[in-house]
Write a structure and sequence with these properties.
It contains twelve helices and 20 strands. The chain is α/β, with parallel strands linked by helices. The strands form six sheets. A six-stranded mixed β-sheet has the order 7-6-8-9-10-11. The protein is globular. The termini are far apart.
Length: about 450
């Protein structure tokens, strides 16, 4: 597909949206498998002034119903074939204001219920420009795209950088280590989550010879183990460039293109982005001191959809967004993320909030209560693990808990392991001590 094709097809889709009654500011929700159509629909929304709301393809009907009820979209697209005949190939684009919302991406929050992060045209454009420069995109670059497009990483970071560069993209339907290895000779840039890199390294065909055309491997969405970074460098001669971002901010920091890429570090802040590490009182901390990571800049979202009350809790009085991550700067200004103050689990680059899983497990007959934690996992970065207490006189089988959870949860949220215990450890305030559970069941 040429850029001319994309221009004409997205114009036709934008015109079709308009004909179906979608107006600027309306939401268009999409849950469909990765395809060129999905990207064209995203572009059509941008061109028509509609707000794009991608939904994870693994979400169950229950999860989709919740998101649709919250977003109140004018249109939900789940199958390209049901979209109808595309009208024309010319469209007069809406000229958006920088702070108009371009997309709403749902992310888990402190309540455990997904909340919609409102990302503006300024957010997306500024981050694409910053990354395009920081990662040195060239006229001959070809991106190998194996990420999903319902996530900020695959949709905004990867695709927007490519569109800004006006160069080709090899668009794989999903990640498959063998297909990626076969495609590498035609590519120069690859973006992936840590799980992609561990699976590539597990394939004997993946070596320096397979990477001769490549200039850059980028990793994000979850922490890359230093051991994976080192093994990758030894095997291929390439140092993976790790960066840091989140749904609400797109990219915040990046290891340098030219210069030392430090294992375990996510690099300095991107140009124009301010990052600080603070204590519980909000005072900035010196290098080496661990505290809450806060960010301010043109990349930071404008708030959560229909949740204005969160502006007071999620943003500081001087406009910094509280990421919920804990980190520290080194003497050279490189940021290191050491943990999360929120109990978020990132498995295979996808966010899992424990309470969402706990509510499903607690509803299973015979379950008294549960606690869900993330434990280190070589393949997924973190694996979802559930610790379950049975009701008095009842017997609970871990595998049946997993089976029943699959009926209401996307596959990536289903616990990889279930441990049945007599009681959950609690502190004096009655709060479950998840740190103790991670220590006990993290092996």
């Amino acid at each position: 597909m040429t850029y001319g094709d994309a221009d004409a097809l997205s114009a036709g889709l934008a015109d079709t949206l308009r004909a179906r009654g979608v107006r600027p500011g309306d939401r268009v929700a999409m849950q469909m498998e990765k395809s060129p159509f999905a990207v064209l629909l995203y572009l059509a929304c941008l061109r028509s002034g509609a707000i794009f709301v991608p939904m994870n393809t693994a979400y169950t009907e229950v999860e989709v119903a919740h998101l649709v009820a919250d977003a109140e979209p004018a249109l939900v697209v789940r199958d390209a074939g049901e979209f109808g005949e595309v009208r024309g190939d010319v469209f007069e684009d809406v000229d958006p204001k920088p702070d108009d919302v371009a997309a709403i991406l749902y992310t888990s929050g402190t309540t455990g219920r997904p909340k919609g992060a409102k990302l503006t045209h300024r957010n997306l454009a500024s981050n694409a420009a910053a990354l395009h420069k920081a990662w040195g995109f060239r006229p001959d670059d070809v991106l190998l795209h194996a990420l999903p497009v319902f996530h900020a990483h695959g949709l905004f970071v990867a695709i927007n950088c490519t569109l800004a560069n006006g160069t080709p993209m090899i668009f794989l339907p999903r990640f498959d280590a063998g297909v990626v290895i076969e495609s590498l000779p035609r590519a120069t840039v690859f973006m992936g989550v840590p799980t992609f890199y561990t699976r590539l390294l597990a394939d004997a065909r993946f070596n320096a010879d397979a990477c001769t055309s490549m200039r850059l491997f980028i990793s994000g969405s979850a922490p890359l183990l230093a051991s994976t970074h080192d093994e990758f460098r030894v095997r291929t001669g390439h140092a993976v460039l790790e960066r840091y971002g989140m749904t609400e901010t797109t990219m915040i920091t990046s290891n340098p293109l030219d210069g030392h890429r430090r294992p375990g570090s996510v690099g300095p802040p991107l140009p124009g982005v301010e990052v600080r590490v603070t204590n519980e009182q909000g005072a900035a901390l010196a290098a080496g001191e661990v505290g809450g990571v806060e960010v301010r800049g043109p990349n930071v979202f404008v708030g959560y959809w229909k949740r204005p009350e969160l502006s007071a809790t999620e943003f500081t009085p001087d406009g910094f967004f509280r990421t919920g991550d804990l980190g520290c700067f080194d003497e050279d200004g490189y940021l290191r993320i050491v943990g999360r103050s929120k109990d978020l689990v990132i498995s295979g680059g996808l966010n899992v909030y424990p309470i969402e899983v706990e509510e499903v497990i607690d509803a299973i007959d015979g379950v008294l209560e549960s606690a869900v934690i993330g434990v280190a996992d070589h393949d997924f970065g973190e694996a979802v693990v559930a610790i379950v207490v049975a009701e008095p006189g009842k017997t609970i089988d871990g595998e049946s808990v997993r089976t029943l959870s699959r009926e209401r949860l996307a596959a990536f949220k289903v616990p990889k392991r279930v441990h049945v215990v007599d009681a959950l450890p609690r502190n004096a305030m009655g709060k479950v001590e998840k740190a103790r559970l991670r220590s006990e069941f993290g092996g």
